[in-house]
Amino acid sequence: MGEDTDATPTLNHHGFLPDHNYVTEADIISTVEFNHTGELLATGDKGGRVVIFQREPESQTEPFSQGEYNVYSTFQSHEPEFDYLKSLEIEEKINKIRWLPQQNAAHFLLSTNDKTVKLWKVSERDKRPEGYNLKDEEGRIKDLSTVTSLQVPVLKPVDLMVEVSPRRVFANAHTYHINSISVNSDYETYMSADDLRINLWHLDITDRSFNIVDIKPANMEDLTEVITAAEFHPHHCNLFVYSSSKGTLRLCDMREAALCDKHSKLFEEPEDPSAHSFFSEIISSVSDVKFSHSGRYLLTRDYLTAKVWDLNMESKPLETYQVHDYLRSKLCSLYENDCIFDKFECAWNGSDSVIMTGAYNNFFRMFDRNTKRDVTLEASRESSKPRAVLKPRRVCAAGGKRRKDDISVDSLDFTKKILHTAWHPTENIIAIAATNNLYIFQDKLSSEMH
Amino acid sequence: MEVSAEAKRIMVVALGKLYSSRTQRGGVRLHRSLLLTLVMKSARDIYHAAQTAAESAAAVCEQHTEMETCAEPSGGQELQSPSSVAAGRTETSPHLLPGDADSHSGADKENTCPFGPAQHTRKRRGKATAEPDFIPCKKAKLECGISPQQLHVSSVLDYVKCGELGPPIPLQTVIAAC
């Protein structure tokens, strides 16, 4: 690690005027996800829209010029809804997008808001049939008396059109807010998780799902923890993991029982009693969990740290990385301004040697598991021009030794948070969502994984 | 009493956030409500613990003073007084944390003044002091130095008042309402 990263031209999500600081809330990016080849990158926003970017094929003339990502398609995935029974509004914000592995020319993705999961088909059309006998060019039925000969319709090339259509709508299965979806390695099923339950779906069946985890207590007054994230194992279609607000991870095996309330493995690190504070429970809540590509490790993120767990060791994490420990003394203010409830995501690189997660002030951090080196980078227009190399940043604790260009903890902008990041499945390309802007950074030294 | 002042502030903020979450678009977020409730309980427990610690420290001083000045039984006996309110308060001092957490069953809960231990201190000056301090009081009592503003906060330690929405409801029911 430690390679310089190249900034590609920053891609505006939706016509953000550079002169204004005003950000439309609907444009705030709420999820980012590469597809399995990395050719496509999807983002979802608070307004319920999905924007798909496609990587341009590498230029033949400039072998070192890596393909850039351009907008491929934009569509409205979810609309705001109103639940009349409970008298509450269902937000259209896209919570998660997950791609299905590609099996034919079309691409499929699942997108979800708080209550409904949808399967979208993304296909290209670059030809259209012309020369029908019974219809004219506009599709109107011809007057039969004008037809004197028969012709065979031919396919004529047209400008590329990307068509997106909803193929399935999986609704009415969640009482609470959906926080995760995960496609199974069997490519037939997927799961959706809300605060208290996890449901298993078949991709072709929308009118029923199986409940595989239910942690709702008989009496809601006894509620002590909720599900915060869930994911299927990348290779074993019977295994999945879910994280809780108490900081625990549970690995479940669907072969053991129909209802996986009883875990196969429980990953929990005993709390350090000396570090206990008013906010211990809040900061130990796991906001994201990701299996490594190998399936051997788990990566979790809580408010201040990122942890790597070995599936074979339940008693404590293998590695703990301090993301922004300088915030530990500021928890009370972060609690008052609500930042302590922010849910940061985390990501593995393709070879599982580097982990990445976001922080405040548009900073994001990468930790190399092998060299133990880490870096803090910033995603912003001011600090990175296109093609510029990102400069490592440093936050110094209040009163600490300060170098030039260091930022002090008190000048961090907590409204600029990087909650969503994604790493290309095989190359050193990362996508960073900074409020309503998407940044894509590429490693200029090499595009292969070390 | 920096810890208890901070605990009170945290509780006030948590209450404010819980209230405002009811009007939030998208409905009440269970995870967030749960975390806020946990913080409130944690702050409440620490607040009570801080109060008790202050009380025992004061009690020890008082006891020393009493031992010197009067031969009557120590304040410990009064702690065993059979009156229901006193019993409730006995629970609150030595068995503060578990007792308080499950104190929904206390009949006099609403009237149990969280500053009970402070009353004990005054009581121990002599049995001659009138009973009235132990009589269930409808109004929360003022402890020296506490402003009415802070008092309001302490009186909702165990209840979440819904204000215009109705009668006070227990803490846990706030979560159940989701």
Number of helices of chain A: 2
Helical content class of chain A: under 10%
**Counted beta strands of chain B:** 2
The overall pLDDT of chain B, averaged over residues, is 60
Largest interface: chains, residues each = A-B, 34 and 25 residues
- Give the oligomer, counting copies of the same chain as homo and different chains as hetero: heterodimer
Mean pLDDT of chain A: 90
| Principal-axis shape of chain B | rod-shaped
Instruction: Report Rg of chain B.
Output: 18 Å
**SS-derived structural category of chain A:** mainly beta
**Looking at the structure, what is the overall shape of chain A?**
globular
How would you describe this protein?
Chain A: InterPro entries: PP2A_PR55, PP2A_PR55_CS, WD40/YVTN_repeat-like_dom_sf, WD40_repeat_dom_sf, WD40_rpt. Chain A: Belongs to the phosphatase 2A regulatory subunit B family. The complex is a heterodimer of chains A (450) and B (178). Chain A has helices at 280-284, 331-336; strands at residues 5-7, 11-12, 29-34, 40-45, 49-55, 69-76, 81-83, 88-90, 96-99, 107-112, 117-130, 154-170, 180-183, 189-193, 197-202, 210-214, 227-232, 239-244, 249-253, 265-267, 288-291, 297-301, 305-310, 319-322, 346-348, 354-358, 363-368, 374-378, 395-396, 407-408, 420-423, 429-434, 437-443. Chain A is mainly beta. In chain A, strands 1, 2, 31, 32 and 33 form a five-stranded antiparallel beta sheet that branches. In chain A, 41% of the residues are buried. Chain B has a domain at 2-62. Chain B has helices spanning 2-21, 30-69, 75-79, 84-92, 96-101, 116-123, 148-155, 171-176; strands at 159-160, 169-170. A two-stranded antiparallel ribbon of chain B has the order 1-2. In chain B, β1 (159-160) and β2 form a beta hairpin. Chain B is rod-shaped, with a radius of gyration of 18 Å. Residues 71-137 and 141-169 of chain B have low confidence and may be disordered. The chains are: A mainly beta (450), B mainly alpha (178). Chain A binds chain B through residues 83, 86, 88-91, 93, 114, 176-177, 179, 195-196, 219-226, 228, 245, 278-282, 285, 332, 335-336, 338, 341, and chain B through 6-7, 10, 13, 17, 25-27, 29-32, 34-35, 38-39, 42-43, 46, 170, 172-173, 175-176, 178.
